[in-house]
Amino acid sequence: MKRYAVMALVLSLVLAAFAPAAFSAQPEDAAKSGGTAISAPAVDGEFVVQFRPGTARSERAKVAEAHGGQFSGRIEALDMDVMSFPGLKANSKASEQMMAALKNNPNVIMVEPNYIMSVNFAPNDPGVSQQWAWGVIDANQGWDVTQGSTSTVVAIVDTGVQRNHPDLDSKIVAGYDFVQGDTAPDDGNGHGTHVAGTVAAETNNSTGGAGTCPNCKIMPVRVLDNNGSGTMANVANGITWAADNGAKVINMSLGGGGAATLQQAVDYAWSKGVFMACAAGNSNTSSQTNSYPGAYARCFAVASTTNTDARSSFSNYGSWVEIAAPGSNIYSTWMNSGYNTISGTSMATPHVAGVAGLLSGQGKNNQQIWDSLCNSAEDISGTGTYWTCGRLNLNNAVTGGTTPPPPPPPPPGGALQNGGFESGIAPWVETSSGGYALRDSTRPHTGSYSEWMGGYNSGLDSVSQVVAVPTNGSLTYWWYMTSSESTSTAYDYLRVKVYNASTGALLATVKTRSNRDARNAWYQDTVSLAAYAGQTVKLSFEVSTDSSVTSSFFVDDVTLQ
Predict the structure, then answer these.
(1) Which of 142, 144, 387, 502 supports an S-S bond with 395, CB 3.0-4.6 Å?
(2) Known catalytic membership, residue 557
(3) Catalytic one among 167, 187, 191, 304?
(4) What span, in angstroms and rounded, lies between the C-alpha atoms of 21 and 313?
């Protein structure tokens, strides 16, 4: 017995660093029955495919060959493969049908297009308001305390870096170019070089300007080409490669729609102890729709401010944004050994990445860096509305000054995001041993969608989200069960589990439902997670079904307050 799977997934990733009006996100299309309607640019005929763990390489090859395809790449750290199907156009009906066919294979967990990320750059005149940020964030006082450690490496996952720039050349460590597939991640765009200079330009060398972390090293990881365009697979590879090769901090000045591959790469890096500073985006909106990876729980989202501590007119904002930092008219290194002054949340983000590097040099881990940045931020106008923690202050961060502002009122759903599953999948992560999309319009409690798990033989489905448990820790959700089981024996189960977000260890199964429970109506459960207050955990709804008669479980309207 198998159920019909409908998947709605939209992703557009674009670089969130350029002149104020230049950030643009691709529009969403409505989901189509039997496939995925996607308008975001993608590589013709290429898909990122995640197989069930343990699936042999030969079996994976058979899946590609059965549909006339072949392997064209791999994301080793995430055990994902890139498959290429010649002659197949992106965003076509044939492409949708190919995705559906691949998902029907029982060994396939997830399939999504190999999206293209792009940037349109419109820099301002060079030399304007050169490095005004240092006075605002009290950098000079903080540098008297620490200038960082030469053992701290900050990865710039971007368009590459001009490695022989006279203001950067002594700071470069080995990197990688995922565009060309070599070890020469040079920048032909300018954006990555500008970001690198803000993070850690050579300081006190009578050349150009200073860097936020004067002693930090720079790891250039090129994932976008000279036109500012690249694939999601390259970005995921860049993140995981940096995490595996010694980066303590990753700067991600790029943003767009959510995708499971991207979130898994972010979660992987966090599990390796890496702190990630991520641009909030330049669309002047509070929406998270095109603000990933910044809106992911493990990314420290950064908004942009002006030299008067006002929110930059282009900057995204909201309770999901952690901090603000200088991002308007930022002077830094540029291509051809030059300098340039440009604006964007991508210019704000490397200020935060640089301070994170200073804190790493003081021996702090990624969670301690997160807490220090938030607790030390200045409570400027907009704090608690446009961003949660305040505006970056370098001196306070390295000295432990100030206390955190009062938290803003919790959004609908409390600590959880998208608890009604109305805004796509993110930040939830779905897995299905049957290859099904779980977000479905068949039986919502409210709105248009719920999560449908089970409904097929020998199935194992789950939907999970990493959350920070608030003080009260009250988890509430609605569930609905249908079943063809006629006995009083429990064969099919819905379990609510709590895992350690860093190690993946199971902490507790806090609720269990089965085919023996009430069926054919919506019911509400409330479970206390107060024992985990203040902890960041992975909350998971998991359904398992036996090999014969099956049951379906629907979950909707999840809140944690």
Answers:
(1) 142
(2) no
(3) 191
(4) 9
